[in-house]
Design a protein that fits this description.
Layout (H helix, E strand, L loop, with lengths): L6 H8 L8 H11 L4 H8 L3 H4 L24 H4 L1 H13 L6 H10 L4 H13 L5 H16 L3 H10 L4 H8 L4 H19 L4 H14 L4 H15 L3 H5 L6
Helix pairs in contact: 6-8, 7-8, 9-11, 10-11, 12-13, 12-14, 13-14
């Protein structure tokens, strides 16, 4: 019978470094996610030398593998108990990669874990801090803004696709103020200016503005930043005027 007192072992395991695995170990891990264990791996590979000569031995009723009601060969707690299976799946997915509650819930549903077992595991993982959507969202905003130059709009869209609650998203993207967002937009345009030299003015403007738009910057901010960058580069403000909307 599965003991709920086993939870701390899983909490500890989730924070341990994962050693390099060879191909055989990767195969074992894949089976573990689906409820298997090393014993099932050995069963698939065939009997060992030690067990080949014992095929004809009779088994007592209830002995594993006898068909008398005991556990079948290779069967684990994760196969017998959906809660154990859900924990194994979540721990594997969380190893080295933070995930949102919704991402884990979707993974459990795809693997046909019963909803009650999934909810028990997800709630417990939240209680002990293995699932933290607020921390996930804050780290996502920090990383994607500084690494990819994404603005609040694009960051919010990405977090929504990962199932993060709207209130959590709003708090996370609120870490970026308007001044910081505009400063990042200017840096992006400055890096792109050289690559657009030689293009027709109208085409160049739209390429620069489009680059910012794809990263989630508002249209007004994008046009303003591009215009300022071109003027600083030496473009005639009067010639630029006819190409810009009223922002």
């Amino acid at each position: 019978m599965t003991r709920r007192s086993d939870w701390p072992e899983y909490e500890y395991a989730a924070h341990q470094p994962v050693p390099p695995r060879d191909a055989e170990e990767d195969g074992w891990a894949d089976r573990a996610v689906n409820g298997g264990d090393p014993a099932s791996t050995r069963a698939e590979a065939g009997p060992s030398r030690r067990t080949r000569g014992a095929r004809g031995r009779s088994r007592a009723p209830g002995d594993p593998g006898s068909g008398g009601g005991g556990r079948s060969p290779g069967e684990t707690d994760a196969q017998r108990d959906p809660v154990e299976r859900a924990k194994a799946i979540c721990l594997r997915l969380l190893t080295g990669t933070p995930r949102t509650r919704q991402q884990l819930a979707d993974a459990l549903q795809r693997r046909e874990v019963p909803p009650e077992a999934a909810e028990e595991v997800l709630a417990r993982f939240e209680d002990v801090g293995l699932i933290d959507d607020a921390a996930f969202a804050a780290a996502w905003v920090e990383s994607r803004h500084h690494g990819r130059g994404l603005a609040r709009g694009a960051l919010a869209r990405e977090l929504r696709t990962k199932g993060v609650d709207s209130a959590v998203i709003e708090e996370a993207v609120g870490m970026l103020d308007a001044d910081q967002e505009e400063e990042t937009a200017r840096a992006l345009v400055e890096r792109k200016l050289r690559a657009t030299k030689g293009l027709e003015r109208d085409k160049r403007l739209r390429r620069l503005v489009g680059m910012l738009a794809r990263r989630g910057y508002p249209e007004g901010l994008a046009w303003r930043v591009v215009r300022r960058a071109l003027e600083e580069e030496g473009e005639d403000p009067e010639l630029l005027e006819e190409h810009f909307p009223d922002t």
